[in-house]
Amino acid sequence: MAAMAVALRGLGGRFRWRTQAVAGGVRVAARGAAAGQRDYDLLVIGGGSGGLACAKEAAQLGRKVAVVDYVEPSPRGTRWGLGGTCVNVGCIPKKLMHQAALLGGLIRDAPHYGWEVAQPVPHDWRKMAEAVQNHVKSLNWGHRVQLQDRKVKYFNIKASFVDEHTVCGVAKGGKEILLSADHIIIATGGRPRYPTHIEGALEYGITSDDIFWLKESPGKTLVVGASYVALECAGFLTGIGLDTTVMIRSIPLRGFDQQMSSMVIEHMESHGTQFLRGCAPSRVRRLPDGHLQVTWEDCTTGKEDTGTFDTVLWAIGRVPDTRSLNLEKAGVDTSPDTQKILVDSREGTSVPHIYAIGDVVEGRPELTPTAIMAGRLLVQRLFGGSSDLMDYDNVPTTVFTPLEYGCVGLSEEEAVARHGQEHVEVYHAHYKPLEFTVAGRDASQCYVKMVCLREPPQLVLGLHFLGPNAGEVTQGFALGIKCGASYAQVMRTVGIHPTCSEEVVKLRISKRSGLDPTVTGCG
Amino acid sequence: MHNVLTRFDFVLIKHSQNTFYSFIKQLNSNFENKCFYFRNFHFVNFVSICFNTQNKIDLNKKNKTIFCKHKSLHNYKYSICNNSYRNSDYIAKMSSEKNVKKHCEHVNLRGENCSVCNNVMESKESKLENGLSNMHSYDYDYIVIGGGPGGMASAKEAAANGAKVLLLDFVKPSNQGTKWGLGGTCVNVGCVPKKLMHYAGHMGSLFKLDSESYGWECEKIQHDWDKLINTVQSHIHSLNFSYTVGLRSSKVKYINGLAKLKNMNTVSYYLKGDKTKEVDVSGKYILIATGCRPNIPEDVEGAKELSITSDDIFSLKKVPGKTLIVGASYVALECAGFLNSLGYDVSVAVRSIVLRGFDQQCANKVKTYMIEQGILFLDGILPKKLTKENNGQIKVLFSNGNSELYDTVLYATGRKGDTQGLNLQTLNITVDKNSNKIITDKYSSTNISNIFAVGDVAFNCPELAPVCIKAGEILARRLFKKSNEIMDYTYIPTAIYTPIEYGSCGYSEEKAYDTFGKENVEIFLQEFNNLEISAVHRKKHKKAQKDEFDIDIGSTCLSKLICLKNEDNVVIGFHYVGPNAGEVTQGMALALKLKVKKSDFDNCIGIHPTDAESFMNLSITLSSGLSFSAKGGCGGGKCG
């Protein structure tokens, strides 16, 4: 899932790279085969977005490349094909289910626009799931074909290190195969975390690994967690008409701008999602009628409460998929806290020719496009004579909650922490999308704010946009901010009328002025 | 006229024109007509009036600055309170100043009608220069003709900077008798209603083409034209009302009157268009912002009488039915698009190319998708004659000799400046003969230095609401705020709301070749499928299917960057065909203004999965001759 475990805006310093001191030339002991005699120039472990990008890029540069990929079934038994989290259990299916939910909203708005629809229109999970799953399968197939086209050897095997140049793969039937390579990239990504200390969590709960592959509707659902995964899932489940509750122990969307985060929640509440704030589940039991009974504790009062649900979905974070890799055999260091792989700014691990990219790496944003770019730059450095490093500053992202939240750069809190309240100017506006107005939709949370330095020309530090099509809106501004846009330059940009994104170039009211930031009229 | 004063009282009056004028009258009689100056300060609820006897004081348009600046209080020891609401606490402040002899009887700033502050101040020094301008010899500082986005924005900005402003607006009914309220084309017969109708059409496409696969069964839905018109019109009415209120609260005097120029400082208007009620008003500066109106060619018999235009379609009482659109402008294609999506049979008669002036590869992609959705394009064919049948239908005789019956014929063959009746010829204001538009310089000035034109009525100016708003505001700031900012017409983004939208900014491929030479231009591009549409295999309209296997639509999206090779691939053109084009293009326009390079696009990380991210991944050049169709199906991005 195009994820974001930590907020990643930052003019340096947000990402922790541990540079490993390696005594060059000493490490020759355990090489399985001498250079030049190894099977591949590059072996990529993990066929997700990052891994595939590396493999294809290296093949493009004329190298002999292999990709190994194996999907360990989820505790519920869900498995999928080539392409990793994003394609199978992340961005793609979630955006499609989000679209299904948005359509539900349009159907409710339809009468205002003259469409006669017999309300309410029931939603058919099976049909949606079939379309989504078929699309994902076609993408799996597409990835296979692309690897073939580029002459990348693909193995559907579960890999583990034998030594620092050799990997042993076990195929489905138990057949083993040894692969050796000069360079190895680890891109195995992450998997959802189960709260195994909670009774019944593993037996009865599902995760984002399963939700998109359910054949039947999940029914009344409890989503546990405050991550964007939790909110996105709860959002589309609500949107397609399911009774959905989110249980949050502390703050939602940690690492994101907190004003925006709370508005995301506000909107979801008004949209029908129920929230249990400050609560933590203590056990899950299956009732004789098949329902799940969840017991939770109110963290402030200590009081216990219970509820019954058809589905319990854990979205409390993700863990790197490093356990079965036998990293110690190769000598690759991981963080003792997170088990994620430690790399330097060149994506190098503690072993000189072994690299790691994507969600499996410590301190990196869990986002598909960053993994892809990091992978491609890495391969260009390895085989293309380049020295360009990945720049992790100003990485934009969007949370596809019912009202989408797009952001790039610093949150308001972070800007203030870094530059001081006195040096930060925040421009903001409550706007009303034209399509909302006539449908009588509540636009209380349609909001945009731009965080700038106060000193002219007021460099833009961050942009936060809550509203329809936030991803599409944010992308271009992310480019502008990357080019060093100032507030003055944003104001000189002519708007496109009538859009939501034009609100960004019309931001006149600063928070400091205390004036009402509500946009009135149109134009 | 007095231009000297030592003693000045000032009066604060709660805003109300009538109370104000009667009060002035009263004061003038009390003070033997010594009330020589008053000024209506905008954005504020108060008005100040000054009386004089001896010393000079600068009361020209600069006076606001003098009075407002705290510094001046010290310089001149005593000063007139300044006039803005926000600064009204200066009165209180000043009263505590040592040297000010103050007899503040009653300061009731929020008082009901008027509160008089007999604030007698003696000025020992008379440093205040005589600058009493001839401003007061005009009724208004600024007269704006035309209440569209440009006119209103300029009027409000001028008022906010202290000018006394009059705005005249009058809508001449269309050939079919359609009229509308304050706000101009954009709100009444342009952007706003068309986006709403586009949105309604878009909804219909989603319901009919995509919704079943997404688990919603609503394919057999019907559309009610009247209901849509109702929704759209009531929204427009609410906007008309909000503009009236907006002008009032900005202290712009609004008169519903049909204006013409009498001389360079006088405008006369017919109140509510009534030719018997002609009123003259004078102004120091005059702005013409009357916009454009659709043009129906003279040489097509029956066209003027029987056809409608974009002036009429958004409030059309009868269901449009089978419709012929004449023209290939974006207005034509947008109207054709939403009518088709709402379920009407639509044909478009195009003389030569579609979307002239836009990137033709993109234009043709838009057209292709429209054809796939069942719109019939009659290429190279135009109506010659329109006649009304007994059943109310219109019989159209085409240039190729064929004839066909339609319920509605809509002309969208271009727009001409709404300058007739303004009496421009008397003042010798230069007008382009073809377009009836006014020629202006970079300062938005006509050949008469105090008469300006912004917006669609200005020749060679993009016909876009946000452009004229900006130009109008910048002009007002130059006239009344001593700004020297000039409107920058480069890299203005725009979006076309056809069934598949098109957003662009900067040079088209053709214009780039013309301007810089083909050898200096590099074009990066990619065609791909929008994720949400391709996942559910959106189908072609039956009419567009060649056979039973020809069912899936072609790729929905095209992303294209035009770069200058020998300038490090600086991006001079941005083009995007696909859903949400306006939203995608806006931020990119900022980047183009910042002289973004292709490498900046490459280094910017995409937001996955969106369509906009496609621009961060463009690697194929047009000159390479390689296929620019994206493989894979995760929208604009790559999942590996």
TrEMBL record, chain A:
Keyword annotations from UniProtKB, A to Z: Disulfide bond, FAD, Flavoprotein, NAD, NADP, Nucleotide-binding, Oxidoreductase, Redox-active center, Selenocysteine
Listed Gene3D superfamilies: 3.30.390.30, FAD/NAD(P)-binding domain
GO biological processes: cell redox homeostasis; cellular response to oxidative stress; glutathione metabolic process
Active site: H497
GO MF annotations in UniProt: flavin adenine dinucleotide binding; glutathione-disulfide reductase (NADPH) activity; thioredoxin-disulfide reductase (NADPH) activity
Catalytic activity: [thioredoxin]-dithiol + NADP(+) = [thioredoxin]-disulfide + NADPH + H(+)
InterPro entries the UniProt entry points to: FAD/NAD-bd_sf, FAD/NAD-binding_dom, FAD/NAD-linked_Rdtase_dimer_sf, GSHR/TRXR-like, Pyr_nuc-diS_OxRdtase, Pyr_nucl-diS_OxRdtase_dimer, Pyr_OxRdtase_I_AS, Thioredoxin/glutathione_Rdtase
Enzyme class: oxidoreductase
Family of this protein: Belongs to the class-I pyridine nucleotide-disulfide oxidoreductase family.
PANTHER family: GLUTATHIONE REDUCTASE, THIOREDOXIN-DISULFIDE REDUCTASE
Protein name: thioredoxin-disulfide reductase (NADPH)
UniProt organism field: Piliocolobus tephrosceles
UniProtKB/TrEMBL annotation, chain B:
Sequence ranges assigned to domain Pyridine nucleotide-disulphide oxidoreductase dimerisation in this UniProt record: 492-617
Residues the record lists as binding FAD: K195, D456
Domain FAD/NAD(P)-binding: 140-472
Cellular component per GO, a single term: mitochondrion
Top-rank lineage group of the source organism: Eukaryota
Cofactor binding remark: Binds 1 FAD per subunit.
Cofactor(s) the record lists: FAD
UniProtKB keywords: Disulfide bond, FAD, Flavoprotein, NAD, NADP, Nucleotide-binding, Oxidoreductase, Redox-active center, Selenocysteine
Reaction(s) catalysed by this chain's protein: [thioredoxin]-dithiol + NADP(+) = [thioredoxin]-disulfide + NADPH + H(+)
Protein name: thioredoxin-disulfide reductase (NADPH)
Cystine bridges: C186-C191
Pfam entry (one): Pyr_redox_2
Protein family membership: Belongs to the class-I pyridine nucleotide-disulfide oxidoreductase family.
EC number of the protein: 1.8.1.9
Molecular function, one GO term: thioredoxin-disulfide reductase (NADPH) activity
Binding site for NAD(+): G327, A328, S329, Y330, V331, A332, L333, E334, G414
